[in-house]
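Entry: N-terminal E2 ubiquitin-conjugating enzyme
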Amino acid sequence: MLFNYCVCSFLPEPFSPRINLPMGLKPNLTSVELSLTTVIKRLQKELLALQNDPPPGMTLNEKSVQNTITQWIVDMEGASGTLYEGEKFQLLFKFSSRYPFDSPQVMFTGESIPVHPHVYSNGHICLSILTEDWSPALSVQSVCLSIISMLSSCKEKRRPPDNSFYVRTCNKNPKKTKWWYHDDTC
């Protein structure tokens, strides 16, 4: 029997982000500051692109970026002619200090989570570009387009078969889940 769904297991708690330096060495704060400046510039560029040329059915929630540039909410409307036509969803993007070399944390949030074979009821999304297939060449817009495509190609609204177990036992951060991808379609 073949199953078309994502199976997950859990990674151990992540290692501390602190760097252990040999005795006598001090961190180069200018390189840390330079790295953060690079992240902020990249996020500002992507924010502007999302505001000026959003993917179809996507709108940046302006309130979400008033206090921080590292957490965005994108409002989404299901594409016409699909199972999700007219439905409204929200995507939460969280960016680490390693962005764009590390993928953003992306999940559905709010009261309406799409019923989809690759979307868990807690909003976690089983999509390879959010983890192992991430590349710094990708952007928020490309992630949004992939999610639109994933929803638009769905033939049947249903949750992943392991939804109940996963939601009860998973980490709140979907990036701490080890995903195994078994299919490319819904």
